[in-house]
């Protein structure tokens, strides 16, 4: 009884956090912005297009994970990948950050393929890494077309410059690591063997190294996963642009959204709030002020909030999969919840 009560209270607390954050964000919006939004016509077809774009992005992300799982030698049908991915997307709304569902995916695969437990975890980690790498590439591409520093405020220019340097360093480091792990030959295998005997980190190297090296035998599959990551992030940019166009007559341009949205997504990826709620709105609102070459009256907070509503509608699909899930899926979800509470 006490365990059940604790689980109910924990679930209520998880749902209360995003609700409180959304309430605070709505309270922060200026009355003038509400008036401006209410007075201008809405294009609901564009809002539907935003939902369609988001669904395409979600489908591409599920496809990417399925490809990476198969590269690990684990059988997974595309339908199963979509079912599990939808449930994970739903779970991310009640966990800190955007990684809540990853634990469930790893546990499910590990339970189904006991001999591939480490490979199952590796597929989830690499899937997350591919998504982040694709996001960084899109941030870099967006910054290349960003306005020159002379056209924006000095404080903003400093911020953009720092973002460019940080992005360049992260992409350079990520590319080097990927090149070594995926393209490296026997020397890398010997390095992993040597690292496995080191104190402290040896166990981690021996556990994680071999599954990551599996992608050495599947460079085409891994490259396809990177392309899918670009597709995912690109469709999310287009989705938020459609939201902005559906609400406002003169929001930032599509090219400017390719600067704004990836940076905002990068900020929201920090595991601080459920599904990045609050972080995304704050980042988009600030970037709406500093990135557009022509100042816009559009509220970045409102646009991001409506975008979160689009994602919530997408998560309803995960609800349908959740209620129709079999005993195996439900058992994996319960195990993930127990491990999350324990940690």
UniProtKB/TrEMBL annotation:
Main location: membrane
Entry-linked Pfam families: LPG_synthase_TM
InterPro entries (UniProt xref): L-PG_synthase/AglD
Record flagged with keyword Transferase: no
Protein keywords: Cell membrane, Membrane, Transmembrane, Transmembrane helix
Domain of life, per lineage: Bacteria
GO CC, alphabetical: plasma membrane
Coiled coil segments of this chain: none
Bilayer-spanning residue ranges: 12-29, 44-69, 81-100, 120-145, 165-184, 220-243, 255-277, 297-323
Subcellular location(s) of the protein: Cell membrane
Record's bilayer topology term: Multi-pass membrane protein
Name of the protein this chain belongs to: Uncharacterized protein
Provenance organism: Rubripirellula obstinata
């Amino acid at each position: 009884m006490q365990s059940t009560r604790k689980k109910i209270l924990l679930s209520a607390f998880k749902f209360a956090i995003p609700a409180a954050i959304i309430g605070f964000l709505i309270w922060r919006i200026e009355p003038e912005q509400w008036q401006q939004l209410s007075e201008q016509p809405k294009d609901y077809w564009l809002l539907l297009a935003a939902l369609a774009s988001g669904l395409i992005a979600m489908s591409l992300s599920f496809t990417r994970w399925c490809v990476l799982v198969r590269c690990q030698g684990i059988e997974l049908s595309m339908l199963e990948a979509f079912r599990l991915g939808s449930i994970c997307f739903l779970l991310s709304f009640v966990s800190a950050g955007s990684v809540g569902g990853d634990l469930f995916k790893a546990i499910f695969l590990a339970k189904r393929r006991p001999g591939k437990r480490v490979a199952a975890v590796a597929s989830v980690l690499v899937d997350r890494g591919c998504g982040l790498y694709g996001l960084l590439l899109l941030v870099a591409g967006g910054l290349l077309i960003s306005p020159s520093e002379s056209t924006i405020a000095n404080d903003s220019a400093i911020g953009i410059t720092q973002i460019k340097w940080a992005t360049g360093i992260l992409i350079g480091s990520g590319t080097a690591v990927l090149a070594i792990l995926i393209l490296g030959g026997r020397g890398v295998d010997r390095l992993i063997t040597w690292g496995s005997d080191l104190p402290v980190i040896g166990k981690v190297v021996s556990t994680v190294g071999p599954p990551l090296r599996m992608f050495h035998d599947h460079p085409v599959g891994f490259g396809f996963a990177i392309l899918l990551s670009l597709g995912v992030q690109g469709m999310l940019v287009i989705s938020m642009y459609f939201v902005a166009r559906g609400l406002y007559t003169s929001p930032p341009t599509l090219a400017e959204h390719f600067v704004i949205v990836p940076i905002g997504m990068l900020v929201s990826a920090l595991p601080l709030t459920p599904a990045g709620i609050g972080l995304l709105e704050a980042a988009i609102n600030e970037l709406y002020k500093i990135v557009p070459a022509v100042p816009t009256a559009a509220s970045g907070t409102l646009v991001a909030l409506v975008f979160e509503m689009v994602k919530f509608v997408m998560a309803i699909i995960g609800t349908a999969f959740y209620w129709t899930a079999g005993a195996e899926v439900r058992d994996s979800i319960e195990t993930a919840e127990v491990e999350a509470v324990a940690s």
